Amino acid sequence: MARYFGKRSKYLLKKNFEYDSKSLVFFLLALVLFSAATKFFSSNSYLYIILMLIFVIPLMKILRRRSFFYKHKSKNYEHGDAGEYEVKKVLIRLDDQYSIYPDVHLNGQRWNIDYVVCGPTGLFTIEVKNIHPGKIEFTNSVLTNDGYPLSGMINEAVREYNGLNQHCKNQLSAEIFVKPILVFTNSRSTVNFGLHPVIRNIQIVQKEWLLKAITEQPLYTFPIPRDRIDDELKKLVMQ
Question: Is 233 domain-assigned?
């Protein structure tokens, strides 16, 4: 079994709580508005009807839309958390030559890397996506899911492996080739790119192919002892 360091993604938990809280606030504001209008103006039926039609109902609709918007955002982060857990269950099946680091935040960066894996076949960044099932393919050079553009996913993966590469240069004075993987966790998604990099050195796989994407690579000769890389990654997940 692979060695696992770190904890569940604090980033996803924080964002889920943030958007859940915002959704609840807007929902409660809508209730308070309706309750106040009913309490203070219901005795004057004419004024009550005018206020409800012109002011209260339109504002309640706005508040309700904002509540639903933030609830949808919260659900996205819930799905992300579930997807990362599915990937964890796959990654820990690697042998003990591999080390796994979840929720890696590089110094000074707000964004995170879902997983970093270090082992005999190299150093990997893994970006996890748990989205609606469909056919993942390139349409006019754009990554799509059943034709719908998946905006930003390729750029996320590029940012993460470039960021880790630069971090290794700065902190370890070493040029380490980082191998990025974009993994889709929904078992009903169709991903047929194989195990070779598809675009900008990124492998794009379904989670059932993740272990092969990592282990069926040539052995990598690190320019520095692997222990130094592992020690640096431990610092990042424990900070």
Answer: yes
